[in-house]
Design goal:
single chain; 295 residues; alpha/beta; Rossmann fold; eight-stranded mixed sheet; two-stranded antiparallel ribbon; 10 strands; 35% helix; globular
Length: 295
């Protein structure tokens, strides 16, 4: 994973969302490489990152897909990374969806006949599912990596939810829970890089964001059985940040004819940033799934 200190992205930009915030964008497929960028891409692939992190954490995945002929792009969610906005603070997950639709619409105008896919990790997986529910035909398929689909029963007891809602009304940006960075990967180098990354939000989860997150999970629960779009759900069996039971439930309840679930034994929250052999398997599975749907 390249960090801003190690390498300045060759192709980046911004757009202003409908709330007036500048959103940092990354277009990996505009980098110089041995791929002929004059050819029409197999598909557009938008990567939506998880809570507290930013889009540059997906460089390896993006370059792998680009090498196979996909046009890969993404942005930092509002309040994340190099985008404007209060750090990891929103009132509703629809704010994330809005910006993705705006960005992808821009690229669809450039490539009007090219199919589009969505990849979402962790909170990005939550967003991806909500987007699929809102516009089922907008993307040709969705890949979920360690998606947040069901709440943590310890952190989401009725009493804690009630108290969280009360606090969110009075002190919406009060940090309540801090995530354990050691749980993102078994690869110690990845964990250290995450802890040292100045673009990662290292503070606690804020009250209002937590309420919005729980509402997003509720919306997924209510709509899960109506899902019919194609998806691949990937999850580490030892993911302690986003329960693997969520991916299992989605796979069981969704009506999709084209659905696949891969659970990697022993892996943590970021299969795409795991130890080399497991990371390679994850990148290969994602790439192969996309290629089969572009034949």
């Amino acid at each position: 994973m390249e960090t801003p200190e190690q390498k300045t992205p060759k192709s980046e930009g911004t757009f202003t969302n409908t709330a007036g915030k500048k959103i940092y964008c990354r277009y990996w497929s505009e980098d110089k490489s041995d791929i002929d960028n004059t050819k029409s891409p197999k598909a557009l692939v938008f990567i939506t990152h998880g809570a507290a992190e930013h889009c540059l954490w997906y460089n390896d995945l993006a370059y792998r897909l680009h090498s196979k002929g996909f046009y890969v792009f993404g942005h930092d969610h509002v309040g994340h990374g190099q985008s404007e906005g209060d750090r990891v603070h929103i009132n509703n997950f629809a704010e994330y969806n809005r910006d993705i639709f705006q960005h992808v619409d821009m690229m669809k105008k450039k490539y009007p006949t090219t199919p589009a896919f969505l990849i979402g990790h962790s909170m990005g997986g939550t967003i991806a599912i909500l987007i699929g529910v809102e516009r089922p035909d907008y993307f040709k398929g969705i890949i979920l990596i360690g998606a947040a689909i069901v709440p943590d029963p310890k952190a989401a007891s009725p009493l804690k939810i009630f108290l969280g809602k009360m606090i969110a009304r009075i002190l919406p940006q009060l940090p309540l829970i801090k995530l354990d960075s050691g749980l993102i990967s078994r690869n110690g180098e990845v964990v250290k890089r995450y802890e040292d990354d100045p673009l990662v939000y290292h503070g606690g989860i804020k009250a209002r964001w937590g309420v919005a997150f729980l509402q997003a999970l509720k919306d997924i629960e209510v709509n899960m059985e109506s899902i019919e779009w194609s998806f691949l759900a990937i999850h580490g069996s030892e993911d302690k940040l986003c329960a693997v039971e969520g991916s299992k439930m989605l796979f069981e309840k969704a009506k999709s004819e084209d659905k696949e679930l891969k659970i990697y034994d022993g892996l943590f929250h970021q299969p795409h940033n795991e130890l080399p052999e497991d990371k390679e398997r994850t990148l290969t599975d994602i790439t192969d799934w996309l290629l089969k749907r572009c034949l």
